[in-house]
Amino acid sequence: MPKGATAVDFAYAVHSDIGNTCVGVMVEYKPYPLSKALESGQTVNVLTDPNAHPNASWLNFVVTARAKTRIRHYLKQRCEDDAVKLGERELNAALQPHRLSDLSLQQIQTVLDERKLSSLDGLLREIGLGNQLASVIAHQLVVGESIEIDVDGNTENHSNTLTIAPALMANMQFAKCCHPIPNDPIMGCSTLNHGLIIHHQQCENLRNAHQLVKAKWEKMQSAVNFDAELQIEILNEKSALPSLMTAIGASESSIQNIWTEGLENNLLLVILQISVKDTKHLANILYRIKRITGVVSAKRNINA
């Protein structure tokens, strides 16, 4: 063993499996730190556990090339295995109410061929590592058409579109900046930390986005509600807020959040976040609000 070699170096010198399952060491029949260098002539007994695995911190003190190589190989393999498991969970969630096990080999192979991947594990690994979007893969597996993500932010040449269907709603993220609702023109924006987020096409935050996906709505069930944000200017009178609440309640909607600010000329700015079913429902709510005595303006905020 070279000078400065530790018990971990020694364990890997004996056998890779000994090193990978090392949990401790006895030197001269006494406990000995794994990170402490061994001395010539010492009696070493490596303690192992079949459920143990290498620790990344070992790379800070091992000195032999064999130990470093084996530790790095194990950690890389484990990272990839974890990515496969994560990718499988994400894809199954995006496939709801279907599951990966429900799909035919042909459905899976079509997706693999298009992405030049050799195995399902390879696809799941790419999803787990964030290189592929689970929602996009799920759409292609179920619907049978691919979705292109344009890294230049230009979707003019894309013929395929991600359909926002009720079955995928639980796993879809809708932007809180523009609050898209059914029948809105929409666009998906791929983000590193949050996956695919659906925006209103006129949302200001799409201007600097680089990974966009064309999207459209499938017909939604009437029971599904979405958030919409309204900006209202109304005369600052005692009846202002009660009148708004009455109009919204009469439109079969509810207020999720409210914020107010006094303006000049005895006006009150009211920002409302309300529940709506689609653009038609929202239009009906705005119509009722605009008919309230004292309302100067009422419009939807889509962050445009």
What is the mean pLDDT? 84
The poorly predicted ranges are 147-159
List SSEs in N-to-C order.
Answer: HHEEEHHHHEEEEEEHEEHE
Global structural class:
alpha+beta
The CATH architecture of the largest domain would be 2-Layer Sandwich
* Total of domains: 4
CATH superfamily membership of the largest domain: ACT domain
Strand order of the largest sheet: 4-8-6-7-5
Radius of gyration: 29 Å
Give the tally of β-strands.
12
CATH class of the largest domain: Alpha Beta
Q: At the third CATH level, what is the topology name of the largest domain?
A: Alpha-Beta Plaits
N-to-C span: 68 Å
What proportion of the residues form beta strands (DSSP E)? 15-25%
- Describe the main β-sheet briefly: 5 strands, mixed
The total of helices stands at: 8
Task: Indicate the overall shape.
Answer: elongated
Report helical residue fraction: 25-40%
